[in-house]
Amino acid sequence: MLIRVSLTLWVLCGTLATFPMIYAQQALPYDYPRPVDTRTKQIQKQEKKTWALGAIQVTNQFDGARLNGFSQKNDSTYIVQIVPENKPINSSPWYAFKIWSAIPQTVWLEFQYKEAKHRYFPKVSMDGHFWELLDSSRIIQNDTVQALLHLTLTPDTLWVAAQEIVTSAQVHAWCRQLALSPDVKYGVVGKSMLGREIPMLEISQDSVADKEAILLLSRQHPPEVTGFMALQAFLDALLAPTPLATAFRKKYRILVFPLMNPDGVDLGHWRHNAGGVDLNRDWAYYNQPETRQVANFVVQAVKKDHNQVILGLDFHSTWQDVYYTCQEVNPQIPGFKDYWLQGIAASIPGYTPREEPSEIAQPVSKSWFLTQFGAEGVTFEIGDDTPRDFIAKKGHTAAIEMMQLLVLRR
Q: Smallest Cα–Cα separation from 72: which of 60, 56, 61?
């Protein structure tokens, strides 16, 4: 289909500008062997409120929160209820709330999920920015649908969350900071179902015309914060003032979509967008506005500037570190993923990357990179509990190894 569109709004040196593009194609649909229904579904909206039980107060009135009920069980135990936005749903039971007590006291919080087992080891913070693991002696976690946390409460607010909270506002602030680099443009490719902006970073030196392109995605699934951390470290390496990174930015166009699901992130969803859909199953017919706008933007942008997409990396989180790859041979950069993973292993002593290849089956992003562009596609998964310093090392090393392999490509 030939259409007239206007591309994104860019932020460059603090100035907004509109870059028009004429007569570009939309992303093509693809009939996957294992299709998924991604039509909009009803979600259960979280009631935003502050609960007050005696001296104790707890609230979910902030972006990224998830708390569906709070009640008292006995003199020392309180029940925390966590339910998903809809179901069926992947078992990623996100929780995040703030709690305090007018009278200092020690209490037990009993987490009840109903739809899942306790997964995320609690993180705590006094300000919502600097986080640490809850002392392991303060949690009792059985292989059940509940967990017990032992907390000392004071009049000071204590943040409790499944992972470090990174809201859409924080992602946009990070993007603006990166855009201070002359090789980075920060823009908005569209809006989510509820009107939140979907950010994009373009990284390249000089003109982007006729360059090969690399796509990077993150936060399709709201709780997957460790994957976003890996993306941050990856971009730190790409933007470093080193000869390797400088040469790479001169040679390639990198399009980064760090916040694919801003509604889900700010609403504290377990997995889905505001349409009740797993966005990483919507890369066939683009029923949801987030995938549709990003997919169309990429297709239009690379067509306009005569770019060939050769690689796509989608940063996620799961139970453990793993690289999900495509079994199909990629004619554009043959052998890339094998050499890349070997290079990562050689650069991190004692670490062996775990690769799990699969055939093209469901409409996930790594398959879309291949079916839409013939590009190598990898889902870069980081474990929920992977140490944060190791996440940074992995993300940085992955970028270095990628640049070393591709910078001399003809």
A: 56
